[in-house]
Amino acid sequence: MELDTLDLVILPGKKGLVFKHVEYTLTSKLHGSSVTRRYSDFEMFHEILLQRYPYRLVPKMPPKKFVASAQFIEGRRRQLRQFINLVGRHPVFYSDELTVFFVTFNGSDVQSKLKEKYRTPLDEFVRSPLASKARELVAVDARVSMDQSRAQLKDLQVSVVKLYNLMDRLIGRAVASADDLRSYGEELGRLGSNASLTMGGDSEWGKMRLQFREMPTVFASVAERSSQLATENLQSPFETLGEFLSLLSAFESLMERREKGVLREHQAAYAKMQTMKKHQGRMSSQKTVDEQDLQQQIVQQESEVTSVERRNFFSLYCIQMETKLIFANLSMLPLALERLAAAYSTNHYELHGMWRGIVGQLAAISPVSSPLTPDASKSLSSPVARS
Fold first, then answer.
1. N or C: which end of the chain has fewer CB within 10 A?
2. Interacting residues of 9 by C-beta distance below 8 A, sequence separation 6+
3. 261 near 101, Cβ under 8 Å?
4. What is the CA 108 to chain-centroid distance, rounded?
5. Backbone phi and psi for residue 37, each to the nearest 5 degrees, phi listed first
6. Does pTM surpass 0.85?
7. DSSP bridge partners of 28
8. 183 pLDDT above the threshold of 60
9. Is 367 helix (H, G, I), strand (E, B) or coil?
10. For position 309, what pLDDT does the model report?
């Protein structure tokens, strides 16, 4: 099974004469295609995917916003890329004609074509050859197992949400730290440029001022690289956690759809049949046309109950498969940890080299000792200076 890998990049400039919108280039490695899409195209695709596969892990769409900042637009691009990759790597979705059409069709008016070709009430239950034998495919303890899995995945989701939020804060703090470094250098520059600070004509102070004037540029380079490393390298573990969290969220949404849909329909159909049979019992002593009509209605209702029951078993079968899919992707958690460790290792190694250069640059103006720090040289013969 060759699943797909997709990428999504923003096209430069907003499109539209009156209502401006962002357009993306969507590329598929599996199909070798490159198409242009906008957010509303993804919305339509998501809506139809839910109609076709009500009992599968359909990821949620990122939010819509009419007035959006550049930061929001970039964040939404990442989320859309995550969404379409989860679809492209799903063992059922990736080869579905709807998905293939969406990632390969290069014509105009994508949304009209999607509605025309794929918007139909015939969902997976109606189309699947497995629907008729779903009862045999479902384990005897399927309902108990499903409830246990749901409870466990809910607990897991709580922890993954915390990890995801912590990762977001780590990135935010790294960017804020870079901003503080830049400000630190700027303040040193102001100190070096302040001609009123003569310090009694001290010659050493004059040398310090010359070095301080260079610090805005020096610290800006460190800050810029630090910020880049934080946003680039730390983004990978952040997105890995985000993908797994999307799977967990999709599972809970799936369970809610089942409760509100086929499970409620099955309960309602069964309750209606029971009411009819009770009514028939009260009429059993009267051989009337009404009773014959009621008997016919009961037969029809029994057929409806059987149909809904088959759908219910098919939904259980699908949930079994989707639960296994989540368990198969538990490895995303250690993968996120590995990427986090690799990111910090890379970041610290590169920044270590930059800071060593600054230590060497400042060595010429750093005193061997001073009244308050008699052994100041030790602060510069730290592991960084000695290595």
1. N
2. 24, 25, 77
3. no
4. 29
5. -135, 155
6. no
7. 6, 33
8. yes
9. coil
10. 85
Tokens of 229: 């490393």
Degrees (nearest 5) of the Cα angle 130, 134, 140?
Answer: 150
Q: Scan for tokens 């060759």, then name that residue.
A: 2
Closest CA to 251 of 176, 167, 386, 156: 156
What residue ranges in the chain does DSSP mark as E strands? 6-10, 23-28, 33-38
Integer Cα distance of 302 and 295 in angstroms = 10
Residue 223: CA count within 13 A, CB half-sphere: 18
Q: 367 or 329, which is more confident?
A: 329
Secondary structure (3-state) at 63: coil
- Per-residue exposure over 246-277, b if at least 16 CB sit within 10 Å of its own CB, e if not: bbbbbbeebbebbeeebbebbeebbeebeebe
Nearest to 36 by CA among 113, 107, 101: 107
Output the pLDDT for position 384.
Answer: 44
Please compute, for residue 254, the number of CA atoms within 13 A of its CA located in the half-sphere on the CB side.
Answer: 29
Percentage, residues of the chain above pLDDT 90:
61
Lowest mean per-residue pLDDT among 60-74, 115-129, 143-157: 60-74
Inter-CA distances, 384 with 40, 181, 352, Å? 53, 18, 8
Q: Are 104 and 28 in contact (CB under 8 A)?
A: yes
Q: What is the DSSP string of 120-169?
A: -S--HHHH-TTGGGHHHHS-TTHHHHHHHHHHHHHHHHHHHHHHHHHHHH
CA 187, CA 269: separation in Å to the nearest integer? 75
Q: What is the pLDDT of residue 263?
A: 64
pLDDT digits (tens, 9 = 90+) for 278-328: 555 555 555 554 666 656 665 565 666 677 888 889 999 999 999 999 999
